Amino acid sequence: APAPAEAAEAEAPAAEAEQARGYELVAYGSGHEVSAFFKSDDHPEGHRYVKVKDRADGFPLIGQSAGWMPATVLESFDPAGFVEADQRTWIRVQFSGTFRDTQHGHCEGVEMMVHPGLVR
C-alpha cells in the first residue's frame, strides 16, 4: 500500500480535475432513484419527446421539453469508465411519466443517456 503522502499526491490530480469540471463524478447502482436533467433533443434516435400531463392528441403539443425530472438508473455507473466525449459511457436512465413526440405518439417513460454532471 502506498504511504499516506503518496496516496494524497495520487488523489490530488483527480481532485483538481473534478474541481476544473465543476461537478463530482458519483457511482450509481442500477435501480437508484435520481434527479436528472432531461433535454428533449438528446434522444438517441432523434425523437423529440416532451413530458405531457395526459395522452391528449391536440395541437400544439404542450409539455416540458427540458428540466430536472425524477429518473431511475438502468445500468450501474462507474465513474472510472466515464469518457466525456463518449455518450455510451454516460448514465443510462429512465425518465418516468407520459411523453409524446409529434411523429411517434405517446409512450410511458423515456430511456436516455445523461451526462453524469446532470444527475443528482
Automatic annotation (TrEMBL):
Originating species = Alexandrium andersonii
Protein name per UniProt: Uncharacterized protein
